Amino acid sequence: MSCTCGTSYIIKSGDTLFLIAERELGDGNRWQEITKPNCTPFTEEEARKLYPGDEICLPSKGSIIKFAGVRSSPYFYYPGPPEPFPPSEYWAKAMQTMAGYFPSSTPVGVWLVGEFNDTKNTNSGMNMGFPNPGGNYDPRIRFSDIDKHESYLSYFDRQGVKVFLQVESGYADMKDLIDVTLRQYGHHPSVIGFGIDVEWYKRTSVALEEADKIPPVTDELAQVWEEAVKSYNPSYRLCLKHYHRPSWDDFKLPKNYRGEIIFINSAQGFSSYQAFLNWMTEFADYFSTNPVMFQIGYDDVKNDETGKTDKFWWEQLTQPFPQTIGLGLAEKCSNPEVGVIWVDFTLKDIVP
What we know:
352 residues, alpha/beta, Membrane-bound Lytic Murein Transglycosylase D, Chain A, TIM Barrel, 2 domains, 27% helix
């Protein structure tokens, strides 16, 4: 047997990938999780050309891909030339395209509701994409005169896609950020949680040297934040995102508290696909009892050894790239659920 991932299976007379998935995985729609012996997915045409005696690989008892979608931010065009922010139809299409690669998944967006305000001191905070919903809040939370997100979320409500509303807090009070965001948008059925990009927690500026100076999120703080989010809706999930590796001394995410938090890793700058998998698997194992998500698709930070960005290795994988990466991650993880989030910087590469 040459199967290098999962469990080897030999095609029998009358087999189709749909029937095999229905029988072996409990859901015929999971046929796209079945791979070739080299762990690459089948195209629909290849799936129709299987014959008795051919070997395929059934997914191991790894993780279920629960969420698949995209990250949206005001930095959509970075690092390229400025472009108009795409319409709601495009974002819904992108989320649904991603979820289409994993039939059991929920189309989802990690949706940034503002952007970090760089003051180079402890007055840093957030420029929100909506007006003050009414209240006295930390002055480091700066509001917009117009609501940039309401029409998008209303469209997502109708399309059945889901979103985690995310913030880049700086020194702005986190409980105030949770309150203003969920007061403004918590009425939307598309909203299923609140995300914190820990890279920007108590950070004074965008300068790279400031990234490692931020304090870690303690167990106590993570619990307080989760309780604050769930006070608006007990079904909401808190997401905490950072790019560090758990083995690092200055790991920024909670050491012991888990609750129902979804942990997200957004690391980039890997020398190879295997190096990427190793890093992400270590992260997933550290939070093995919880769902984890991976923000992928970067073309920004260059690896010190190769001098190339992640796009160098991911665009050499079998297409569709998100499916190949997602199946590779799910096969190696043992978490109850995983998610695959494509970063907006290169989204046009996979969803034109």
